[in-house]
């Protein structure tokens, strides 16, 4: 199993014109935000090709002010499900893109695929069958102080000319939530 980093770098080298769709839910949204910053800051992909959508993401940037690293991140689109609104923000002097509901829905489905550790390719096929996504790698790691498992995957769609980097938060946190 290849690392996500190696897989993304290889796919971007082979497909430099493809968009890189980075997405995640909860803690996975935070990881997606950091991954998109990494992609831009280290010039792994053109910043204009990186599209980030997160869902229920905790804040990952510092308090007021930004750094040069943050300005390398693409425009972030965060879905606040409890408020049912979209927040578009950019920390730099970028022109804000318009919110795309169709792409947001695709990104939501793609972030949900990360929650299927057994059959992610089948889940991809069922979620967006016309896209013909091919799963490249899946990685699961302990991601917090309690050794909860988080995972992510990399997939590519030749039909959509997109590379997907998606993350999920910890299933353990969901199972042990006091409100569940």
TrEMBL record:
It comes from the Eukaryota. One of its GO terms (biological process) is lipid metabolic process. SUPFAM superfamilies: alpha/beta-Hydrolases. InterPro entries: AB_hydrolase_fold, Fungal_lipase-type. The keyword Lyase does not apply. Keywords: Membrane, Transmembrane, Transmembrane helix. Gene3D superfamilies: alpha/beta hydrolase (3.40.50.1820). The chain crosses the membrane at residues 20-42. Pfam families: Lipase_3. Residues 3-60 form the Fungal lipase-type domain. PANTHER family: FUNGAL LIPASE-LIKE DOMAIN-CONTAINING PROTEIN (PTHR45908:SF11), PROTEIN CBG11750-RELATED (PTHR45908). This is Fungal lipase-type domain-containing protein. The lineage of its organism: Eukaryota, Metazoa, Cnidaria, Anthozoa, Hexacorallia.
